[in-house]
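[agent] plan:
  1. take the single chain provided in the ticket
  2. run structure prediction with default settings
  3. attach structure tokens to the ticket
  4. add a short note for the reviewer (M.T.)
[agent] executing step 1
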Amino acid sequence: GKSTLLRLVAGLNQPAEGCVALGPHRAEPNYYAQSQADALDPGCSVEATLRLAAPLAAEHELKALLGRMQLGGGDSLARPVGALSGGEKARLALARFMLRGGSVLVLDEPTNHLDIPTKEVLEEALRAFEGAVVLASHDRFFLRKVATRVLTLEGGALTDHQGSFEDLLRRDAAERALSQRQDAELRDLRLMTVQSQSRRSRAERMMESKGRSLRLPAPLPSAKPAQPVRKKPGKKKRH
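[agent] step 2 finished; step 3 output follows
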């Protein structure tokens, strides 16, 4: 699936055959898993969780990041991860991901459990990122905002589409409309063929019926009426 493909790109899984290359220069992938929020340690504080990704980050930098991720507050750094809601954990996982940096960001469904303001923060961060970003998402609105190149994998073949995600959607819509129109024309042609065959069959049956009526047997000749038997006149007897 797509998660396995992204883990291969990030170097977390090894391919069964072939190899994965990220370019001629040394690339440092940073992977954001779809279930990254579930991997947070509930016993750690927010600050400890962030410092695992950036040990040398200043406290004001961490607070500024938490503010952008809507996790700010006077005691935000001291809060235990276990006390956060599901949405807050997702935002904390995203904040930790952004602190790790890297030259290639690999994201698997990054907008899951994010509200609109947090999505906007992520969009801005990805657009400002100077490295490469590889992401998979079902969020079409998010893809419209950040994707500049679209690759599709179908039937074991990888296709590189020119243009934005919006361009790809328009092309797909046009191709579907053309396919539906061709299918409709084919159905109409088949219907016309069936109707033509039906009319021809009716005509053939009518011709056969007419032929049978023309070939009726001729009536038998009627018998001649019997002629009355005439007696020949005999000689009169003399007395």
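[agent] step 4 note for reviewer: Residues 122 and 159 are 27 Å apart (CA to CA).
[agent] ticket updated
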